[in-house]
Structure formats: C-alpha cells, structure tokens
Amino acid sequence: MLIVSNNPMVEAAFGDSCVFIDGRALDVLIYVRDMLHKGHKLLSHPLAGSVKPYESPIRSVCVSKDKGAYDMQSILLMENAIDRYKTLSQRNFIENHNEDFQLIDLSLIQSAVESRFQDRDYLTTQSGGAMYET
Amino acid sequence: MKLELGYIPITDIEFAERSYVEGSTLYVSKEELSDVLLQDENISSVSFAIALPGDKTRITPVKDVIEPRVKVEGKGGMFPGVLSKVDIVGSGRTHVLKGAAVVTTGKIVGFQEGIIDMSGPGAEYTPFSKTCNLVLVITPKEGVVQHEHEHTVRMAGLRAAAYLGELARELEPETIETYEFLPLLESIERYPDLPRVGYVKMLQSQGLLHDTYVYGVDAKRTLPTLISPTEVMDGAIISGNCVSACDKNPTYVHQNNPIVHDLFKRHGKDLNFCAMIITNENVYLADKIRSSDRTAEICGYLKLDGVIISEEGFGNPDTDLMMNCRKISDKGIKTVVITDEYAGRDGSSQSLADADPSCDALVTGGNANEVITLPKMDKVIGTEAYVGIIAGGWDKNKAEDGTIQVELQAITGATSEVGFGYLSAR
What we know:
The complex is a heterodimer of chains A (about 130) and B (about 425).
Chain A: E1 2-5, H1 8-14, E2 18-20, H2 25-37, E3 60-63, H3 72-87, H4 98-117, H5 120-125, H6 130-133
Parallel strand pairs in A: 1-2
Antiparallel strand pairs in A: 1-3
Helix pairs in contact in A: 2-3
Chain B: E1 2-9, E2 12-15, E3 20-22, E4 25-28, H1 30-37, E5 43-51, E6 57-60, E7 62-66, E8 69-73, E9 92-98, E10 100-105, E11 116-117, E12 132-140, H2 146-166, E13 175-180, H3 184-190, E14 196-204, E15 210-214, E16 217-218, E17 225-226, H4 229-233, E18 237-241, H5 251-255, H6 258-266, E19 272-281, H7 285-301, E20 306-310, H8 317-329, E21 334-341, E22 362-367, E23 371-374, E24 379-382, E25 404-407
Parallel strand pairs in B: 1-9, 2-4, 6-24, 10-12, 14-19, 14-20, 20-21, 21-22
Antiparallel strand pairs in B: 1-13, 3-4, 5-12, 6-11, 7-10, 8-9, 15-16, 15-18, 17-19, 23-25
Helix pairs in contact in B: 7-8
C-alpha cells in the first residue's frame, strides 16, 4: 500500500510507503486520480473524516502499490471528491493550527492502515508489518 | 425487552453545599463533583458553570452533551462497558433528570467547534439551548496528548452525568413511559399484517474526534449487529466525536433518538418496528463494503419491508450511506435515508458527496453551509478563540461590535441527521 500525502507527520510515520506531495490538498487528490488512471486502486476514501475538504490544508489517501485493472468505482469516487473540493469555498488556513490538522489526518489514515493490516493477502504478500511500525 | 423511563423534570440548576434534587431544581456541590472527576490523573483542574435557557451565554467549543440517568431496576448500570461493568442494559427501569444536561468543553485540537447559545438566534438552532446545562471545563495536565485529552474529557462527562443521575435513584418520577421491544417472531406473530420496519443507525467511526463506542468497544472494530432500541436508550452507545458539530450525535442524542421514539409511537398501529441495526462509517473502503454488505444481509435475512437509514457526519460517510441504501434496496426492501446537506452557502451546490439511483426517498436535516450571524453574548463558557477557525467559522468573522458569523455546521446539533433539532420546512 502507498499513502499519498502532503502531511509531514504521515511522511515521518510511514517513511518509504508515503509518496510525499509538497503542495495543497487538491494536489494530493489530483496526483491520486492520475495514479488511478494508471491502474492503482483506491483503498481509503478521498474525503477522510469530517474536517471538510475545503477546511483542512492536509490530505492523505491510501492506494494500492500494485497496478491492476482500471477501477471505475475508484475513479468516480475520486472525481466526486475533487468536485466537492473545487465547488465549496476555500478558506485561508491559520498556520499555527497546521499541526492539529496534521494530527487528525494522521489519526484517520492510521485507522485505515490498521484496517488494511487485517487483510490476509497483505500480511502474506508484503514484508510483514514494517511499514506501519516505521 | 421492556424498559421504563421515569422522568423527573428539572427546570433549574444551582450550586450548593451538597448535591440533591428538590422540586424541579438540581443542586450541585462543586466540591463533591470535583472529587469524582479528579480521580482521573490526567486532569489538572476542572471548573463548573451553569447555563440556563434564556441566559445571554455561549458555550464553545462543545465536545459532548450527556443526559443524567440512573439504572434503578434491571440488569446493568449506566454506560455499560465504560463506567459500569459490561452487562446488557435496556430492561427494567431507568430514572432520567429530564431537562438537565452535562456539557463538556475544552480545547483538544485548535480548530474545534460546537457552539451552544442559550438565547438569541443561535439558540433557535441547537436543542441544547432548552436544557439546563452544567458545563465542565476540563484542563488536562501538561504533557497529556490529544488522544488522552479526548478520552479524559469524554470520561469526565460520563462520570458527571452518572453522578448527577444517581441523585434521581430514590426519587418518584412525575411520568413514566414504557418501551417494549419484542423478540422478532413474537412481534411478527402479534402484528402479522403490519409492514416490518427496521432502523439502520450509522455510527461515526474514523479516528480521533470521529469515534463512537458501543458497550465500550470502538465501533470501527465492529461488524453491523442487531441491538434493541431500549439498549441504546439506556446508554449502550456513547459519543467520542465532535468534529462538524451540527450533524454529530452527542451521547444525549443516542439516549433520546427521535427515530426510535417515533417508531415506537407507531409500532403496532401502522407498522411493526421489529429491528434496529447499528453499523459503522470507516475510512477504509474495504470496511465500507464489508459493513454495508453485512447490514443488507441482516435486513434481507429478517425479510424487512422497509428500512430507515440515518447517517452521522458528512463527506466519506455519504459513501457508506449510499452503499447501505443500494444494497438494502437490492434486497427488495424500501428505504428512506436521513442526512443533511453541504450545498454551499447559497444552497446551489450538490448536497452530498455521493449518490445512487436507489436513493429515491430522502429526508434532510438542513443545509449546514447556511450562514448565520450570532450576537455578542454577556458570558462565554470555554473560549471564543476558536470560533474563527472551527469548521463552519472562518477568518475575520468577528465584527467590531462582537457579533460573529458562522455556518450552521458550527452549531451543536443544528442539522441533526436523526431529527433531534428544530430545522424544518414546516
């Protein structure tokens, strides 16, 4: 599994499994959308949590490491998320709360990763739990 | 399962030397309650405030609201698996200090939200402007991290509610309501000609400030399951979530879910309320598929005729909502979903983040992006420091005269997705 993220806390927690995007939350979503078109599969919902997409500058999304068949459902979910992001008004984020946004984002993505851990094929085909522990 | 709720009406709260109820006044000893709460070693200090209907008072940021109740007969105690030992609740008798509420506040992260105005235009949008509120302001010890802080505030609220509820143990209720939830076969035998209706209650379960607990278990670690609605009335479900305050279910709302109460009112008349199913809303897509599959399987297995589905929160749970709706509809069961909308400030944008053709009957709790101006209040319990940065607030939203502009989503319970609010087209 790969985590595409602009969250430094996620990068620190997941190391090589994180594709760090030095940009806006929207840039993360667009990067993931492009991956989906190349055959990666969306694993976590692009609108994680109830911190509204336009209210947090931080976003992390889990996608499959392997490429497979083109997954229309993944792409529709992602396009919907990008549409929501662009439709609803943008805010100016207050820099000194960035850490709190990062923490909530990390917590949500950790809950996704913990779920992923329960998947048998992951445990047998990947190299154990090193990704989450690093 | 048969549960009697005995209501003791409360119309006032006052601080006193000792805690007791006399007439319809709840007297609270700060000292006694402090002793109960300070057992938690993460708490550095706790202070109390009273907010009554009509007061020029604002409470923010609100984390949870809890109704004080006590189990006087039957199995289990209040908040089983959390404060009391794990035991099935939902039968016997429970006494309720009706009209009283415990409200918790405290900064956990910097963009938190939840406004309760006790008077003025904001009061029209939150159901907790009509309750007599004992507010706990919890200050954690230095070094307590956010997850621990959330847990500490959550437990303090529950402990305070249980402590106050205990004062009602020996009191004679003014009114008693009885709710009986029959075993499925008995229910069908008794009402063979009435349509079998189930209620699917979705629980927010995504991570910090987004969690819900069932008998003490984090709902994200559960599969959908059947539960008696009387268990839910009796404290089996508690809230650990508060982000996007308008459409989260505080513990109080789990205890007083209007969908459950209304279904009971019509039970045996024009429908047979014979199933309640709780399911979760996780971040991981495979979890969403697994949970919605299981929910639909249970509905199909019970051969329900109709199902009401209520969502909690907004955004990715819209996907859970649509999966539930589609898969239950595919079983040949009629569905009605209850949600709220994020349709932009002018209401012209798409309301939900996901959609499905099977979702052809929908009730809305209102548009959470609607903008409202709140007047300056004489007293603020907690702090207004975050109002500008809460979800629903925005930069420079405080005018020189002290009025603030926020979206409805900042107001606790404003667009409740179980209908525990005042927004209506009527």
